[in-house]
Amino acid sequence: MGKLGKVDFVPFSKVDGIEERLKEGKISATRCKKCKNIYLPPRMDCPECLDEEMEWVDCEGKGTLVTYTTIHAAPAGFEDDAPYTICLVDVEGGGRLVGWLDGKEEDLKIGMGVSVGIRDLPEERMIYFVTPEE
Amino acid sequence: MGKLGKVDFVPFSKVDGIEERLKEGKISATRCKKCKNIYLPPRMDCPECLDEEMEWVDCEGKGTLVTYTTIHAAPAGFEDDAPYTICLVDVEGGGRLVGWLDGKEEDLKIGMGVSVGIRDLPEERMIYFVTPEE
Amino acid sequence: MRTGVIGIGHGKFGRREVTVQELAFEPFREALDDCGLHQKDLDALIVGSSPEYHRQRSLSGVVAEYLGMNPKPTFLVEAACASSSAALATADAYIRAGIYDTVAVLGVQKMLELSTPEILALMGRVGDVQWESGFGTTFPGYYAMFAHRHMYEYGTTREQMAAVAVKNHHYGAKNPNAMFQKEITAEKALASRMVASPLTLYDCCANADGAACMIVTNEETAKKADTPIWMAGLGSATAPMSVLRREKLSEIPSAIDAARNAYKMAGIEPKDVDVADVHDCFTIAEILAYEDLGFCEKGGGGKMIEEGETHIGGRIPVNVDGGLKSKGHPVGATGVSMAVEAVKQLRGEAGERQVDGAEVALMHNVGGIGQYCFVNILRR
Amino acid sequence: MRTGVIGIGHGKFGRREVTVQELAFEPFREALDDCGLHQKDLDALIVGSSPEYHRQRSLSGVVAEYLGMNPKPTFLVEAACASSSAALATADAYIRAGIYDTVAVLGVQKMLELSTPEILALMGRVGDVQWESGFGTTFPGYYAMFAHRHMYEYGTTREQMAAVAVKNHHYGAKNPNAMFQKEITAEKALASRMVASPLTLYDCCANADGAACMIVTNEETAKKADTPIWMAGLGSATAPMSVLRREKLSEIPSAIDAARNAYKMAGIEPKDVDVADVHDCFTIAEILAYEDLGFCEKGGGGKMIEEGETHIGGRIPVNVDGGLKSKGHPVGATGVSMAVEAVKQLRGEAGERQVDGAEVALMHNVGGIGQYCFVNILRR
Ligand SMILES: [Zn+2]
Ligand SMILES: [Zn+2]
Prior knowledge:
The complex is a heterotetramer, with two copies of chain A and two copies of chain C. Chain A is mainly β. Chain A has one helix at 18-23; strands spanning 27-32, 38-39, 54-59, 62-71, 84-91, 96-101, 113-121, 125-132. Chain A has a five-stranded mixed barrel with strand order 4-5-6-8-7. In chain C, helix 1 packs across helix 2 and helix 3 (83-96) packs across helix 13. In chain C, 36% of the residues lie in helices and 18% in strands. Chain C is built from 13 helices and eleven strands. In chain C, the strands form two sheets. Chain C has a nine-stranded mixed β-sheet with strand order 3-2-4-7-1-8-11-10-9, with helices on both faces. Chains in contact: A-C, A-D, B-C, B-D, C-D. The interface between A and C is medium-sized, with 13 and 16 residues.
């Protein structure tokens, strides 16, 4: 699938267009052409109108910290990364994403403004990174 | 578990006594002390009287061929063994077992008499072998 | 109180480059369209699937979310290859109990996202893992042993088995949702490579991705539909998982028991069946099904296919949707797929595959190597 | 038409060196003994389990065989950690529909036969595998994020969470079936190693092998039992699997919906509950449960544990069997385990853990991270 995340569990998805957009540094959602609902994580079927006419929209990469945790007991594939801090971010323009913190857990405050970027990982994979704003 | 079969899927079972008996060359069943039912494959709980008082009984290793097949498309762990022939044998004294054929599939006739022995495999594992009788 | 089917949907079976929830969405949308309902009109989603094939754990929760079914209840029902027939029977129970009025039953399976080694490892655990799998038994291997036994007891031939494959591919060629839409010849089938003697490649169905969906509802609501189809008889039974504990190996005992229960509930006899979908995971399985369902006497299955009695125009047309053999067998989707085809036949919407005037349809869905069987009878 | 519980059985939870079917046999035997029935008196076996943990595929078929249930029907019901509550609800549906009279509901899970790498790999796929798991989310990690959000919104403290662990171990020490039969101190809990901040080891329940069984039957048959216990309210609901699609993260929305449905069906209010088992997979989960079930107002959960309102003698004693926290959490067995404990309380057979005069018991069983919740109310 879209090369998003450190480990890949899903080889195929209708959302395969995301890979290219990630490479271009875009944080992308999909929007139903019919009902205009925005989906982040993106999806290609609209559960509202049951339609599959979707278009890509890009987000600014700004958002609000919803919650977070630092993982000390890591699952397979993440042993060497622990401890790492996972952040949930409500993105301006709609939707939510999960990203890794660039910074210290101590500096986080739920509700604070954050910016979201994309970083390269080994094996051509990419991951969202979250940076607290001043 | 009991080291029976080429690949082990079940690390624990109440039937762990079978390992020792296999090493002694014994084809063993269990018998409910209460209702005297014989179980091959062996089990330690009697579904008839819901009791768990079981004792081991040994079989002669003689039986009748119930059916067979030669596996050409092998599952994981058996790639190097294929083709191998699997036989189901109704054992004298009660119960049925699955074993590998020592011989040619062409020589098999359902209903024929067979004898069953135990052979060693690598990594201390053991397997039932079935030999057609004259 | 009867349960009625008012909406059906069926996706394309085969290799599908989508996620399992995307796969599920297709027939779900089609089934809602078919009956003009929306998610808000549904009381629950019951998913039939065999979870071992998915990387996504606890499938029904993810699928419910993707289909827009939250906060409606959902759970998964599993009975191996008969999972979605078990789901359908369970939906019927919830509706007849008056707990839910209208339920979406979804059969879905994404089999082809696992790697080949993962699939081979899974295949190695198809039987009783304690006493059988360590000897390298396989799914085709079990049915191969049933075939050898049936050949021994009744003189069934490889040619008769091949005739099942030829028939099912003949009809599958007319089914746009089938994985393989092409005819085959007996010669080609008989000459294909051996998988587990006496079964060759063409005796075996193929793994596939697939999904099918059905909207079922209570009698009152169903009566308002244009052509409600009624769930008239539901039977289910089990047999020992282990072939080491089965008395006979030339039959599927759970099928015999399930059929008896279904016929009794529907108040019919085998001869009243107009069209049937039976579980032809292997060609021998269809021959066993003829006998276990009472379509012919014990041992008469080989002759029944030979004489064309299960072709359209024959006594009881069987698998005229192509069967598992040509549709492919997306484990958890197969039961609802059979039921969707039955509904099409009873509505008279089966096109080139239509059995004229079909009033009673039967589905025979075997789980695993017969540890489960579900027999459902639908009527117009 | 009400469904009644007439037989219960509960095995020892923990590391058990037996197969999954041997594990299942123990409480099944106990439950049959408890009501004086035999397999022939049962119409079906419904198994609740999470299949991902077993090497044996299609569990219910193997278990049905081992329990001597062939040819009776069986199938498996899965809703992650709430699998056997879903199985119990399904048994109720089959019985109220009149399809079966008497059903054995078995919750069973063998978690500790997988290797550590296998378990770690499984743990890595606990969330939405498409959008979340690739970031290294874990099961404790999700609840940790709920905890941080709850701390932020309501000022809940780590000490309040530790108090849940202390309470549940206190009662678990009196439960011979619990995995951990020993008391702990708040100091020890707070000082234990961090798993996913702010949750430490003692905030988390442990994987365990375990099984529990329940014989349920129709009203007519149940009335003949000495002390039938009635299934008075069954509620279930879902929420998005993905935390990326949940509106609030300081509650389990499916629990709120399921509780509403269950209270309505039982015709009671939260204050009428005499004793409850709630899904304390993590200490924060028990605090969320108090609020979601309406035992206290939103945000009041921390204070409720602090003030001892959920101890025996308090307003609503919760998890006085030790909870998942001290019993261990054999995923598929947990729902029936809760129900078995509820029946003991209502029969007055809970020994040292008895809540005097308990007439109404509630079980709250969450699947996964809240994608499912089942709330069942039993009464004497
Ligand atoms: Zn839309
Ligand atoms: Zn006995």
